[in-house]
Amino acid sequence: MAQILDGKAYADRMLDEVKAAVAARKNSGLRAPCLAVVLVGDDPASQVYVKGKIAACAKTGIESIEHRPAADVTQSELNLLIEGLNADPDVDGILVQLPLPKHLDSKAALHRINPAKDVDGFHPLNQGRLFEGLPGLRPCTPSACMRMLKFHGVEMAGKRAVVLGRSEIVGKPMALMLLEENATVTIAHSRTADLPAVCREADILVAAVGRPGLVEGSWIKPGAVVVDVGINRVTDLAFGERIFAADPVKLAKLREKGHVLCGDVRFGEAMQVAGAVTPVPGGVGPLTIAGLLRNTLKACEALVCPG
Hints:
By secondary structure, the chain is an alpha/beta fold. The chain has helices at residues 7-27, 44-60, 75-87, 106-112, 124-131, 140-151, 171-180, 195-200, 237-243, 248-257, 267-271, 285-303, and strands at residues 3-4, 34-38, 63-67, 93-96, 160-164, 184-188, 204-207, 225-228, 232-234, 260-262, 276-277.
């Protein structure tokens, strides 16, 4: 059976490091970092995500401010809110929770954030710094995944890596970070010819497409390291019986509760083939929040704002 890469354990380690650094700042007379979170509307999933981020801030000593514009806020009103946070010297990081309501332009909002406060790492200037291999605020999920892989001693230099997914949030930055570590990288996607064969070439396979159970065990090279970034909610029992055939625990939860969370990889099948696998939940998810708070600390230290 494959090794389970416990993302939660490593995320807790990252949060402890942030907590210690925040305490050291305060002990030396500097203020704690401050994260401003903008949540537009009342999307249930987004509210859960924001709650988790705010709780993590409290755990590490980072201050947090919540702004909750109504779902019908206009683009100009949202822009004004972001501009105000940009100008606030006591705010180090700004996070606009996605997705936004359909009438709003997400990219326009994200690009409005001061790059020095862009703790999600989505601004074009921060993406460009990553492209050129320069230090800066990098996308939380890929950067935390890379730290976890290094922590577990996963060798990347000279290895074949396949990133399944080409989003600006995970796929593209993950490919660049793997390239920095001297892996040979392929970005695969929905139009890749013979996708299973491409995935089978990977010593390191990163799945980030948001399609539950897409990656079957037969797609995985024996001994490969599999990083499952997807998090999906499955409610269809017939579908679940197909993708969870080798995962009786997931299937039992689906039958009992009527829903279950899973990744893009068929975990039970992957465990029989791979060398190491991240679970869902408990794998990459916690790393994202830890990476966000680490970026908030970095943003604060770069600004060097005394309390």
